[in-house]
Amino acid sequence: MEKVLQSWPGPTTWILPASEGVSHYLRGVHDGIAVRVTDHPLASLLCRTYRSPIVSTSANPEGKPPALSAKGVRRYFDDKVDLVIEGPLGGLERPTPIYDGVSGKRLRA
Prior knowledge:
Helix content: 10-25%
Radius of gyration: 15 Å
Number of helices: 4
Strand order of the largest sheet: 2-1-3-4
Structural class: alpha+beta
């Protein structure tokens, strides 16, 4: 767990064991849940202002490249989202790495 905590806040996602009460809407058919504590200024401001974590998914349909702009998000999702907040990306060239929180194994580069 120390490795997980040392990576936050930052652009690292960890798959952690989900407690029994975690909704299937958050974990799907999996035993774990993907968690990240962001250091992105706009996203962290939104969490602090709302006083709650944000549940989100990637800004792309499965199998498609990530949307890299608000316009790209709108192109993918059109009227399926209520709001798109425009702002800078986090500066990474690729989506954030994902690690298994128990084994430490890298699941996505």
